[in-house]
Amino acid sequence: MNSSRNLSLAFLIVALLCIPFADLALYQVEPWDELARMGQGIIQPSFPELSILADSLMITVAFAFIAVSGAAFLGLLLALVFHSRSVRIFSASIRAVHELFWGLIFMQIYGLSATTGVLAILVPFTGIFAKMFAEIIEQQSTVPHSALSMRTDRLSQYFYTKLPQAWPQMLSYTRYRFECALRSSTILGFIGLPTLGFYLETAFKQGQYDEVAGLLFSFFILIATIRWWFFTKIVPAYALIPAYLVLAFIALPDSPAVYGSSLVQFLTQDIWPKALLNGDVSASINWYQHQLFDIALPALWDTLLLAQLALVATGLLVLLFYPWASKAFFPKSFSFMRGFGRSSLLVLRSIPEMVFAFVFLLIFGPSGIPAVLALALHNAGLISYLLMRHSEQIKYRSDAGKGINHYFYEVTPRIYPHFLSLLLYRWEVIIRESAILGILGVTTLGFYIDSAFEDIRYDRAFFLIVISALLNIAVDSFSRRIRAKVSA
Q: How many CA atoms are closer than 13 Å to the CA of 217, on its beta-carbon side?
């Protein structure tokens, strides 16, 4: 517990030290008329034409389902050989790049097509599945393995000993990733793909907040009803997968013809500076120095500052939010309060960070404050939900205290290591997400990456994406070591 307390204090101090250096300026804005229109839109939501809404929802689900199905399969294969350093490095590299950046990359090759939408989710999710499946498999008992012959090959060992034990946990994690994929699929609409996010962004920019509310409510219903329309108890999930895959491929939008030469040109020409392609070593070094010191490092610094503030803000909000949805604090007689708390967490974790950031940009102006608040609220909703479920699985003493004493002396101390573990796990995710918020104008790495794509400077965009990936790999490695010490 001492290590958890010291770690929490260290993160809090670092966040306080970041405040003077972060762009947290308050601008003179008059958002009240706009906010009033938003409030009226929420009270009186409207929905787009049924055909448009149905198509955008089906495409959103189709991208997510096909990508998760492929990523789970590929991730399982990689998990079986995850002991290889090259596999671990490959998995870390592809998951370190956000889905939105993958979307921007594949868009240059495949355009605004279904291929771009599916691959943008499938590629990073493959790295995530590989890591998580490998960790789940390693946690299983080795007792069944002792019953096998010494000559049994590695693949058979996995399939007959560890995989049967790990399967329920792997299936549960796949369900969670599918919900994440639905959010990622929605966010891809912000770069032009025809998912729900495309119509969300359009409605926001046009000030049609009643339609924004209708689209968000549709997405909330989609997320809240997954357990009924997807993971039904009547028919096993594995029996539905082939049928869902067929329906998902049917729902995909038409894709343009793609020629291999565009892919070859992009990989061999577009992403490299001209000086390097011409063999001018001196000019190449100067180009990379300019990109690194004048653009990448300042953007990297801003990204880290905002991510650190968002991380600490997320932790504080989680400690405030999770009790309101937990049976540990609100038994059956207060089920209405618990229902309100769970509904609130559903809303927070379902609304994409980009939507939160849109609203806060109106209130606070173009600074880092909208990014910090958007990241904190979204991630707090997600972690609070997971922490609430964990708190309900603990058996408490019959003579345990009530009210605030129950919170401070019984529940929170027992779940605090798990809380820190979840927070550290989301640390790398928060950095990835803080980078993509640059697309809205916040000066993180995403701002310069998006600008480079708009200027058709693919060499600069590729270099900055590599820097972003290296940052995420470093943070992931650091947080993993800290998690190991906390859980020890």
A: 14
